[in-house]
Amino acid sequence: MANLYCMATLTKPTVAVLGLGLIGGSLALKAQSLGYDVRGFSRDPDTRAAANDAGIGTADSQDELLQQLPDHALVVLAAPLEPVLEMLPKVLDQTPESVTVTDVVSVKSPLRDAAARTPHAHRFVGAHPMAGTSESGFHAARVDLLDSARWVLTLDRRTDLTRWAQVAQIVTATTGQITPASSDAHDRSVAWISHLPHILAETLAIGSDWQPALGLGAGSFRDATRVASTRPELVEAIIAGNPHLDATLGNYIEQLMQARELLRTGDVAGLLTDGHQARRRWEQIKDEALDQGQVIVHLDAPDAAERLIAIGTTGGYVVSCTTARATALVFEPEK
Amino acid sequence: MANLYCMATLTKPTVAVLGLGLIGGSLALKAQSLGYDVRGFSRDPDTRAAANDAGIGTADSQDELLQQLPDHALVVLAAPLEPVLEMLPKVLDQTPESVTVTDVVSVKSPLRDAAARTPHAHRFVGAHPMAGTSESGFHAARVDLLDSARWVLTLDRRTDLTRWAQVAQIVTATTGQITPASSDAHDRSVAWISHLPHILAETLAIGSDWQPALGLGAGSFRDATRVASTRPELVEAIIAGNPHLDATLGNYIEQLMQARELLRTGDVAGLLTDGHQARRRWEQIKDEALDQGQVIVHLDAPDAAERLIAIGTTGGYVVSCTTARATALVFEPEK
C-alpha cells in the first residue's frame, strides 16, 4: 500500500470538481492556486465561463470531463444531496478503478448506502467540510473559504484506507483538518449538534404567545434563534436527508418531557448542573484542541481505521497525511 | 393626580433598597451618584460595611430602615423571588400609605398575587430590569450596570398609575427604558424568550448520542447551548417560580412534535419559512427601535394604561416620565 500512490503524490493528483458552487468553487480555486491540475464542470454555462475566467479549466460536458481523467484522479461531487445521490453510481461506473470519488454533502450515510449498491463502494470516500454556507454560487466562492475548515472524512466498513489517505492528503494540503468518523456517527452527531438546533431555532422564533419587544433584551432568545436567520432553502438543504434526524428529534422531545416533569416537581437542579457541566466539557475540548499531543498513525497497521475513529471520538484530528509513507499525522488530546 | 408627587419630584424621593446584591447594589450606587437619598439594608454585615464604604447609608435592621422612611419614599425589594414573596406583605404593612413598593424579580405574577392578598395592592408596582446577571453580590455591583437596561414595569388591574409613573420616573432618570406590560404578559413572554431557551440549552448540551468533537465546528450548537455556561444556581433562580413555564414548555413540545411530523412527510419548507420570517421580524423591531416616533402619553387620560400596554406590545418603550405633569414620553414604532 505504501507506494501505490507514490507517483500521484509526487505529481499532485488531478482534482475534478463536479459542481462549482460555493464549496466546489472554493475548493477548485484553492487546489488550482496550489498547483493541482483542477478540472471543473457546471451545468450552468455562465458558471463555467466565470470559472474559466478564474483560471479553472472546465469541460463542456460531465461525460467529456470524466472520459479524459488521468489515472488516480480524485472526483469531487460538489452538489446537494439529491443530485449527488444520482451522480454517485454513474460517476463510479464511468471512471476507471484507480479514480476515487468523494463529495461535500452534509449528510453521509445515504451516500455510503448509494455507493454500497454499486460494485465500487471501496472507491468512495465521503467528506463533509463543516464550513459556513450563508451564501451560495460560484460568485460567492473564495480561494480561502475552506482554510482551517474542519472536515469529516468517513471511515466505514467498505472504506479503502489508501483512498481515504489520498483524500485526506488533498484535504489537509489544501484546506483544513480532518475528524475521522463513521457515516452513522457523523449523521447522528450533526443531527444533534446542527440539524436539531436549526429545528429548535425555527420553532422558537415562530413563538406562540409572547411580546416580541420583550425579547429584545433577552440574549438567550437572540442566540437560540440566530440560525433561523439563514435562508430557509439553505436550512432545508442542510437538514434534509439525514436519516437520523427523526430519532434525534424524538429523543430530544423525550428529554424535554422529562425536564418538564422535573420543573413540576421542583427537582430541576440536577438537570441544570448536568447541562452546565456538559457545556463546560465541550468548551474544554475546544480549548484543549490548542494544546494536544502529536502522534503518527501508520495507515498500514491492521487497526488503523479503528485508531483513527477513536481519535476523532475523543476530539483529535488529522493535520496531514502522506500516502507515500502511509502515515497520518494526528493531534489527539493529552491523556 | 398631576400635582400629587410634585414635591417628591422636585426634591427626588428617598429610595430604600432592601437587598444589596448585584442589582440592588448597582441601583443604589446609581441613585446615590445622582443625588437621591438612598438608604440600604442587607442581612450581611460585611455587605452593609461595603455599602457604607461606597457612600450608601445603611440601617442596622430592616425594621429601623422602614420606620424612618419619609413620605413618598420608594422601597425596592432587591432579592430573589422566595424572600421577596415573604417580604412584600410585611413591608406593605409596615410602611405608610404614601410609600410605594417595587422589586427586581424576574417573574412578576406571583408578586402581583402576593400583593393582591393584602389591602395594599395599589401600592405595589412590579419591576424587572432585564440586565446581565452572570455575577452576583455587592462586590460585583457597578454604578453603570443598569445604564441603558430595558426594564419591564407591570401594569395590572390594581396598579395605581400615579405610583407607576413615580417608579417609571426614577427608573428612566437613573438607568434605562421601560416596556409596559401586564404581569401575565411579562411572565408568558419571559417563559418563551428566556426560561424556555435556558431549558433547551441545558437539554441540548447534555446530549445523548454524539461526538462532542464534531460539535466544535457547529455554530448552531455553540449558540444554542451558550446560556448553559451560566451557573446552575443562577439559572434556577431565573426560571424558578414562573407559573407560565410549564404551559410554555408543553406548548413548545407540541410544536416540536408537529415539526417532527412535517420532517417525516417532507413538508418542512413552510416551517422553515415561517421561522425565518419570525426571526427577521424580531430583527426589524430591534433595528426600528433606533428609528421610532416620539409621542407623549397623558397619564391622567382614562385609557392611559391600555395605551401604555399597547405601546409595549408593539415594541415601543417609555424613555422618561414626569409625575409633576403626569406625562410619559414614549417611543413607539412608526406606523
TrEMBL record, chains A, B:
Keyword Oxidoreductase: yes
Any Pfam family: PDH_C
Entry keywords, A to Z: Oxidoreductase
GO molecular function, one term: prephenate dehydrogenase (NADP+) activity
Keyword Translocase: no
Superkingdom assignment: Bacteria
A single BP term in Gene Ontology: tyrosine biosynthetic process
Domain Prephenate/arogenate dehydrogenase, chain residue ranges per copy: 13-293
SUPFAM superfamilies to which the protein is assigned, alphabetical: 6-phosphogluconate dehydrogenase C-terminal domain-like (SSF48179), NAD(P)-binding Rossmann-fold domains (SSF51735)
Similarity-based family: Belongs to the prephenate/arogenate dehydrogenase family.
Protein name: Prephenate dehydrogenase
